[in-house]
Prior knowledge:
There is one protein chain. This protein has helices at about 15-25, 45-55, 100-115, 140-150, 155-160, 175-180, 205-220; strands spanning about 5-10, 30-35, 60-65, 120, 165. The protein has seven helices and five strands. The protein is globular, with a radius of gyration of 17 Å. Strand 2, helix 2 (about 45-55) and strand 3 form a beta-alpha-beta unit.
Amino acid sequence: MGSDAVVLLSGGLDSTTVLAYALKEGRRCHALSFSYGQRHSVELDAAKRVAAALGATRHLIAEIDLRVFGNSALTDDIAVPHFASGEEPPEGIPVTYVPARNTIFLSYALALAETSGATEIFIGVNALDYSGYPDCRPAYIEAFQAMANLATKAAVEEGAALSIRAPLISMTKAEIISLGLTLGVDYSLTHSCYDPLPDGGPCGTCDSCRLRARGFAALGMEDPALGRRPGH
């Protein structure tokens, strides 16, 4: 039997691929999602579909409310940017960045790792085809791992080092999708859109949809999640 691992699962393309990757490595995966006041909470339905389809050992949804801090298009009354075909987003960290989100999520994952006996936390951050969020960079992941190993009972008393695994961090979206397909991921189950349509389907024009579409196009494919949009 493999060891236990916590996998942060949003229900999006990257986190789904990471769950499939961890399972392929033989891990017993405790998938962890968050209802944090996000406008695209439909992603939680995708996370449930993915966890069930891939066979996570269990799937937990933690309820927190990041709307109290605001200052993000995902949790506040700020418009999500949309882009025309071929248009690139402006330089800088976008308004869809949620302050300290990955730090908060990883802290919860750390608590779950301690209580479940997991020695690894898997996260689907990526530092190539991504929106420029500061908490998706290798230096951040390394720093959090160092902190985690100073902060847990298992590490301090038992010498049980915990690893933060970010296997996609240096991959393009096309490479991530290609990996997922070899692992049997059904990307029609996933949801990445920041500003879903009234029926819950992806808008196709936010930065997250744009990055997904670019990855599938590089492989000569259309994003299968677009089948949930009217007219497809």
